[in-house]
């Protein structure tokens, strides 16, 4: 089954989902308040050290691979403008924040996260049913590895048929695939009576 949750059990799997999500929010707030490249790099060192301590560093790094081209674009843009330091800080923050988020999803069952989202969405119940918001968040998290796999399959299919690099066409193809998958999920939910 495609999932972001690691099948390898660690001590972090036993922590409550709410605690991990709260620590993630706190870490992200502190990370974006840190000034300078050195302190921001230390912020990145924390999730890396945790991933290593949990024995999940290989999978953790693999999940960060899609950020390589985004980081390269940010660094190139800031280099072109002659402001490399803000670009480096932005990339470090992005990798650290998403790396910490990956650790949470790798060590937390989706049903546990959905329960936290349901609890957090209760104050919005006069506007939107909390179950719908919780389901939307769970589906978003669940579809991340599916979209990653779909992008990899489309890229391999393109490489088998052409010697040219796929480039931006992959973004368009993955977007269409995501919309198609979303339509199938919506049909399945409607067939089962939707969600309260």
From TrEMBL:
GO terms for cellular component: plasma membrane. It is a multi-pass membrane protein. The chain crosses the membrane at residues 21-51, 63-80, 87-107, 127-147. It is found in: Membrane. Keywords: Membrane, Transmembrane, Transmembrane helix. Pfam families: CbiQ (PF02361). InterPro entries: ABC/ECF_trnsptr_transmembrane. Belongs to the CbiQ family. This is Energy-coupling factor transporter transmembrane protein EcfT. The lineage of its organism: Bacteria, Pseudomonadati, Pseudomonadota, Alphaproteobacteria, Rhodobacterales.
């Amino acid at each position: 089954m495609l999932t972001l949750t690691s099948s390898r059990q660690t001590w972090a799997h036993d922590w409550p989902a709410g605690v991990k999500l709260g620590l993630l929010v706190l870490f992200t707030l502190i990370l974006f308040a840190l000034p300078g490249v050195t302190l921001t790099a230390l912020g990145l060192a924390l999730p890396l050290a945790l991933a290593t301590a949990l024995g999940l560093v290989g999978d953790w790094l693999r999940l960060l691979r899609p950020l390589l081209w985004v980081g390269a674009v940010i660094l190139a843009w800031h280099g072109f403008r002659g402001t490399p330091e803000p670009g480096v800080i932005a990339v470090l923050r992005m990798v650290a924040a998403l790396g910490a988020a990956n650790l949470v999803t790798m060590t937390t069952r989706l049903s546990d996260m959905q329960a936290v989202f349901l609890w957090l969405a209760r104050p919005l119940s006069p506007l939107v049913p909390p179950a719908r918001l919780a389901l939307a968040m769970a589906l978003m998290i669940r579809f991340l590895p599916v979209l990653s796999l779909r992008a990899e399959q489309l890229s391999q299919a393109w490489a088998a048929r052409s010697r040219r690099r796929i480039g931006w066409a992959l973004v368009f193809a993955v977007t269409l695939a995501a919309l198609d998958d979303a339509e199938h999920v919506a049909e399945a939910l409607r067939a089962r009576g939707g969600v309260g």
